[in-house]
Write a structure and sequence with these properties.
The protein is of the alpha+beta class and 104 residues long. The chain is built from 3 helices and 4 strands, in the order αβββαβα. The chain has a 4-stranded mixed beta sheet, with helices on both faces. α1 crosses α3. The protein is globular.
């Protein structure tokens, strides 16, 4: 239920481009995937609600930026968390765009 509250808060802020409950590849085989709560593919940002530390470590080792929140944090202030997520997605997207410009 808290994932839905966060989903609504992100929508209310006009945040776009994220996928929910999506499999993300974490290995070489087709089976090597984990389901993440929110994924922003253009900024390699993953948001986990009550995610495990081992899942976070695996995703981070593959270059994903992972933000994790507990149910109680989201219940207390979903709007603030949505703003944090939006800011991080924008920061990562700008960073990726700058990296592409420098490589050209």
């Amino acid at each position: 239920m808290t994932s839905m509250a966060l989903f609504k808060a992100l929508q209310d802020l006009g945040v776009k481009g994220f996928l929910t409950q999506v499999p993300v590849k974490v290995g070489e085989t087709v089976e090597d995937k984990v389901i993440v709560d929110f994924y922003f593919p253009q900024s390699v940002l993953v948001v986990e609600v009550n995610g495990s530390l081992s899942k976070r470590a695996k995703l981070e080792s593959l270059g994903y930026v992972v933000l994790s929140y507990s149910d109680s944090e989201i219940e207390k202030d979903a709007d603030r968390i949505a703003k944090e997520i939006r800011a991080e997605a924008i920061r990562l997207r700008r960073s990726a765009n700058l990296e592409m410009i420098v490589r050209k």
